[in-house]
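TA notes, week 10

Several of you asked for a full example with nothing omitted. So below is the full record: structure tokens for the whole chain, then the designed sequence directly under it. When grading your own attempts, check the secondary structure regions first.
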């Protein structure tokens, strides 16, 4: 679970296919630089996304995202459905070779599922809970914690699973 104090600096891009075309290679193939970065056991201390703690790492990743020039907004401005749509988009643009590199070494940057079907089932359950269980209604601490986790995951995917030109 994402530490509560780290939530204040999480933001996400309000991404569209046209805004992704500039900083992200959509060729489907990671560059030599992307592969080199992915093969590092963890980001090097001089990396733009390095952090000694999870909070520091997410702050660094968020700083890279915000400085990319993509329009961003705070995590709390997103709802679950919008974040799920963003996840589908990012997943479709990912470079599978990067995840293969992470998985082969047991790296925590690896995706924790084998296909998006796993996420779709999870999201279906979340959607049902937000309409039938008061504890998970929008605005509750449980809803917000789930949203913050989704935001953190999307920032991580953007930084570590896409072929990036400017990182």
């Amino acid at each position: 679970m994402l530490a509560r104090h780290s939530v204040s600096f999480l933001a996400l891009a309000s991404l569209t296919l046209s805004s992704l075309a500039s900083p992200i290679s959509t060729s489907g193939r990671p560059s030599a630089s992307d592969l080199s970065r992915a093969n590092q056991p963890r980001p090097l201390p001089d990396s733009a996304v390095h952090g000694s703690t999870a909070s520091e790492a997410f702050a660094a990743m968020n700083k890279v995202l915000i400085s990319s020039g993509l329009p961003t907004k705070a995590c709390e401005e997103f709802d679950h459905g919008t974040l799920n749509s963003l996840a589908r988009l990012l997943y479709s643009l990912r470079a599978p070779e990067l995840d293969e590199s992470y998985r082969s070494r047991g790296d925590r940057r690896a995706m924790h599922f084998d296909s998006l079907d796993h996420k779709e089932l999870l999201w279906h359950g979340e959607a049902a809970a937000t309409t039938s269980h008061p504890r998970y209604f929008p605005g509750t601490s449980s809803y917000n914690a789930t949203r913050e986790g989704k935001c953190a995951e999307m920032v991580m995917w953007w930084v570590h699973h896409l072929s990036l030109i400017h990182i």
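The chain is about 50% helix and 5% strand. Use that as a sanity check on your answer.
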